[in-house]
Amino acid sequence: MKIVCVVSALDIQLNYGCTPAWWQFLKGLHELGHDVVAIPYAGGAFATPWWRCYANPCQTEGSAFGALKKLFGKSAKSGGTSTSDGAGGKINRKLIESWVRPRWEAQLAKVLETERNVDAVIVFSVPLNHFTGLPQRERAKYGVPFYYFDGDVPASLPKFGGFASGFRGYDGADLREYDGFMCNSTAGAEELTAMGARCVETVHWGVDPELYSPMMAKEEFDVFFYGYGVEYREEWFEDMLVTPCGELGDKKFALGGKGFPPTPIALQYVGNVPFNGLRQACARAKINLNISRTAHASVYGSSTLRMFELAAMGCCIVSNPHEGIEEWFDDGKEIVIVESADDATRTYRKLLQNARKRKAMGRAARKRVLSDHTHLQRAEQIVAFIRP
Q1: Which of 48, 107, 128, 290 has CB 3.0 to 4.6 Å from 173, enough for a Cys bridge?
Q2: How many CA atoms lie within 13 A of 163 on its CB side?
Q3: Which of 321, 32, 326 minimizes the C-alpha distance to 204?
Q4: Cα(133)–Cα(351) distance, integer angstroms
Q5: What is the SS3 assignment for 120?
Q6: Please, what are the domains in the chain?
Q7: Segment 240-292, tens digit of pLDDT
Q8: Of 77, 119, 117, 352, residue with least CA distance to 221
């Protein structure tokens, strides 16, 4: 099949959480023998061995939109208004309706006319209301089905509160415009159906086991967590990292990423970890933590990319409770789930005393990824869903 993929971004330096996953899904589609054409909604376009590309028609406007959102959008947690409301929302909507959407419609029309015989268009996590009306008009003109993949469920859905920024991509959107929806959440898929989506498929995250292969490194840290910010995981950040760090004073705890509040001196901050440095950073730790945000952890079967990345790298993983995690990994064999700060402290102490157990868990986790959670398996699921 020839598949046109409009992705939220291709540039990993933009630090959009889903971007590495989109790379792997597109790579998987190519490896299955499909012709992949990619267009980024944010940032620049570039070709790889796995996809051809067309330019983002609103790269400059996208930067301006981001600036407006920062200027007018207030944090929903601090009681601010949504970026869909107020003066900022009105300016954003005007920009989208009068400039961004028409340019994207023209660009997609050009791509469909140039490529010919396109079997499907998949929109990956572009704000739905930025494309309102576009799928319906272009399907009628070119006879090409449109599908949508939301990789931010459940946080993106109105019922679950939306993003911390207050951004609401579903406001004013018509889910019936798309021939089908895909998302990363079992319970979230049910909500999308209730919101009017015609056909919904849950496609959990998966990873390229070669990209995340295990590597040898000196184990400099006992416990390591890497992520972006503590929003919606404040309690477990405290219980799994800050408190045990104080309790286990003879152990080395490390933190990597961005957006963290001041932490105890004993908790070593190693700075941001570039994507190509993730394997080495995780290999330097005896135990790696998965701390899921509340929205994902509390809504059944809402997968996150980090647990699959750590498993593929053969890490010893300790996680906070996550509804439905048993769909992907076996507690006690491939991952350890802790229920409290005291439980985390006890678990770290036991695992740090048992290198054989840690290594066995890492091997079992990677074996599970190879069996059930590769990028190729997820690409096969996407193809089965969109195939005519």
Answers
A1: 128
A2: 17
A3: 326
A4: 54
A5: strand
A6: 2-206+375-386 (3.40.50.2000), 221-372 (3.40.50.2000)
A7: 999 999 999 999 999 999 989 999 999 999 999 999 999 999 999 999 999 99
A8: 352
